[in-house]
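#onboarding

Welcome to the new folks! Below is a worked example of what a typical request in this channel looks like: someone posts a single protein sequence, and someone else replies with the predicted structure as tokens. Don't worry about understanding the tokens yet, we'll cover that in week two.

Example request:
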Amino acid sequence: MTIGGVEFDLKLTFMIIFSAFVPMLDYYNHRLTSLKAYDRIVLYLIIPLIIIILLFRESPSSYGFGLGNWRVGLMWTLIGCGGMALILWFVARTPGMVQYYDARAPRELWRLIYLNGVDLLGWEFVWRGFMLFGMARVFGPGPAIFLQAVPFAYMHLGKPEIETFSTIFGGAAFGFVAWQSGSFVYPWLIHWFIASFTMLIASGRLG
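Example response:
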């Protein structure tokens, strides 16, 4: 589409607007269900899938939905979880992390693990699936890996400073894993582990 001599890629324009607008709905707590984690499944997983299938007329697999190359994905998952476990063993004990996460970690272990998994499933698909693979078609994978990490990083504002400053690099690392494996599933597994492990250490239930 061309307006005033300026050409707009409609799919890319739509994705950019979506990546700005939907996190605002999330931030201002526009409730869709009885639970925040379920709201995020709707906002960041179900709605993008509907857009891909009904509006873009494409297969979700072309946006990283599926298992992709599971051998590569599993390798990066083990590396990511192992590396972050070593880092978080120390970082998650710092005063800012303890103060923030101890107050927010569910007391029941099953609920802590379950809610983190559900909450992050949509987060990972919208950034490491929908946005990453969509933008890579226009900009290439290198720029797309960092572009999708920008809104992800801003969504961490309000969290401990040491965590927030790291998220542009963490988001890019997740994007790299998604691109290498062809799937958002493996960054989701790593992120799920990181979130749960952090809460367990910060709340004093590990170590």
